[in-house]
Amino acid sequence: MRLLLVEDDNHVAAALSAILARHGFDVTHARSGEEALQALVPEVDGFGVVLLDLGLPDQDGYEVCGKIRKRTSTPVIMVTARSDVRSRIHGLNLGADDYVVKPYDTGELLARIHAVSRRTAQEDATGSTETVVRLGALRIELPTRQVSVDGTAVPLTRKEFDLLALLAQRPGVVFRREQIISEVWQTSWEGTGRTLEVHVASLRAKLRMPALIETVRGVGYRLVAPTG
Predict the structure, then answer these.
(1) How many helices (H) and strands (E) would you count in the chain?
(2) Can you give the residue ranges of the Response regulatory domain (predicted)?
(3) Positions of the chain with pLDDT lower than 70, given as ranges
(4) CA nearest 98: which of 64, 49, 25?
(5) Tell me: the pLDDT tens digits for 67-117?
(6) Share in percent of the chain as helix, strand, coil (round to 5)
(7) Starting from the edge strand earliest in sequence, which strands make up the sheet with 220-223, in order?
């Protein structure tokens, strides 16, 4: 798989590139936001994943993520030292598919890269049936992966849609955290639980329906069908 590593620290990039190469990745190193954007022009794109460090010298990493998302659907994994929920939600809202908080374990990083790329490949290979889920003002179009509330489109990231679509399959039924992580992230790695929490918070905020997804303490989550 081709991977675009956006990292301004040459020492960090060299060490990480060596590790990724040993695991079968063809790494292209971009040292700035501008280099990354130039590497992602449609004519030469073909990267399986973009690994985006937010501490770039020329542009804000969040801004770069937004620009990347406008020109390609390539999955983006943010790398950041910011561990607060608001920062993570902001990154997800800009189109990031996942994030890794520094300092990170190499095994964790590799697991997230594989999970994101595996999920993307499955989406590309799997055909969708013509199904629309309606829950009060919420409308979920599974074939086109579009969501709207009261007729207004709500843009969601890939993982946000997958999570919402999963819960909407059986409103009122509790999905265990392990089950959600397995089906949405295609992994059993325990650290993904924090990512799940952030995606749930992001969905509540984007849909402006905080009561739609209920947390079942110690178990998981369930979608509460709106009334009226």
Answers:
(1) 8, 12
(2) 2-117
(3) 42-45, 118-130, 187-193, 227-228
(4) 49
(5) 998 888 788 999 988 878 888 888 888 888 888 888 888 888 888 888 787
(6) 40, 20, 35
(7) 175-176, 220-223, 213-216
Tell me whether residue 123 is exposed, middle or buried, using C-beta atoms within 10 angstroms of its C-beta: 0 to 12, 13 to 18, 19 or more: middle
Q: For the chain, how many residues are written?
A: 228
In the numeric block, the tokens 């040993």 are attached to 22
In the sheet that holds 49-53, the strands lie side by side as 26-30, 2-6, 49-53, 76-80, 98-101
Packing angle between helix 177-184 and helix 158-169, nearest 10 degrees?
130
The answer for residues whose C-beta is within 8 angstroms of residue 115's C-beta and 6 or more apart is: 98, 185, 186, 187, 189, 192
Sequence-distant (6+) residues with CB within 8 A of 127 are none
What tokens does 71 get? 């020109």
Q: Is the pTM of this model over 0.70?
A: no
